[in-house]
Amino acid sequence: MKKHNPDDRRDNVDKIQFSIDHTIQNMEAAEEMMALTDDPQQKKSLKKKNKRRNDALKGMRNEIRDEATDKHHKNK
After folding, report:
1. Per-residue confidence (pLDDT) for residue 76, from 0 to 100
2. CB neighbours (10 Å) of residue 40?
3. Is the pLDDT of residue 30 over 70?
4. Sequential DSSP letters for 5-65
């Protein structure tokens, strides 16, 4: 029988922050590639990826806020 792992959320903020940092690095790298390429198709693709990354960042930042709020309420 498989054991159920308890929901360990102690390092969620750290994991989310790592993802945010990594996503920002990817966005910056894509911006650099856009500046260096003359290929309109590649620029379009990179812009779309960065749009999706930006949307993901918003979600991750909301998730960090939720985790901080949850942690604050549990510590009361």
Report:
1. 63
2. 8
3. yes
4. PP---TTHHHHHHHHHHHHHHHHHHHHHHHHH---HHHHHHHHHHHHHHHHHHHHHHHHHH
